[in-house]
Amino acid sequence: MIELLGRLVRKPQGAIGVVLLVVLAFACLLGPWLAPYAPEKMDFLGRFRAPGWQNWFGADQFGRDVLSRLLVGARSTVPMALAATLIGSASGAVIGTTSAYLGGRADEFIMRSNDAIMAIPGLLMALLLVSTLGNGAGNAVIAIAVAFAPGMARVTRAVALAVRNQDYVKAAIARGEGPAWVILREMLPNVMAPIVIETTIRVSFAIMLFATLSFLGLGAQPPASEWGLMVADARQYMHQAPWVLIAPSAAIALAAIAFNLVGDGLRDALNPRDER
After folding, report:
1. Looking at residue 24, which CATH number applies to its domain?
2. Structural domain boundaries enclosing 192
3. Is 64 exposed, middle or buried (0-12, 13-18, 19+ CB in 10 A)?
4. What is the pTM of this model?
């Protein structure tokens, strides 16, 4: 693990991504204690206060401190995106590995069904599911996970097809191990490298997708300080107080960039032959 981290931070994109992820982790874990004010504390005399010593990132239409809302809102945005990505990636990895193991007509049926679902754009799929399940952060997580699973299944199957022909898989089948054992204990652990890389990169898309659903009123609901919801509330004041819109937009962009950079760094770190 230490060697992997060393190879990761050796590249500039990996080092920058790790630094940004550490900042995000601190915001998620310590945000409520680092926030200078309560996120819902209103100060009508300070409405649209420009960034300064009182409010480092300015104040919004209710006089609420933007920095405090960003720090507390990190808990609503990043962990939700991580949960959605992990659920979708795990489900897709199991589906793809199972399809590669079964082969034949079963593989054909699973992949053609998977392709039919992938034909629907991820945002549209998430919108359809949230509209069916109802508004809320929990339903948004489920919708994003379902939208991500088919793509991960396709990626995993491509790698698992090669693993399926390895001697250790054939040996497990020959000694009478069941399909569940072969899939979960023999094949899946040996296709983890591309899964980890793909999962890390997909977190950035999950952050933007979760923020989009909240922006449309289908994810987190007021008075939550989720970043996408903050952008939605601030859009009508962008000419009067642009900092109210810029701050959460920049937070979403930096979080997405962080996971993308770490994903690129992991791709290089997990392929030391390419590095040499």
Report:
1. 1.10.3720.10
2. 2-40+54-275
3. buried
4. 0.85
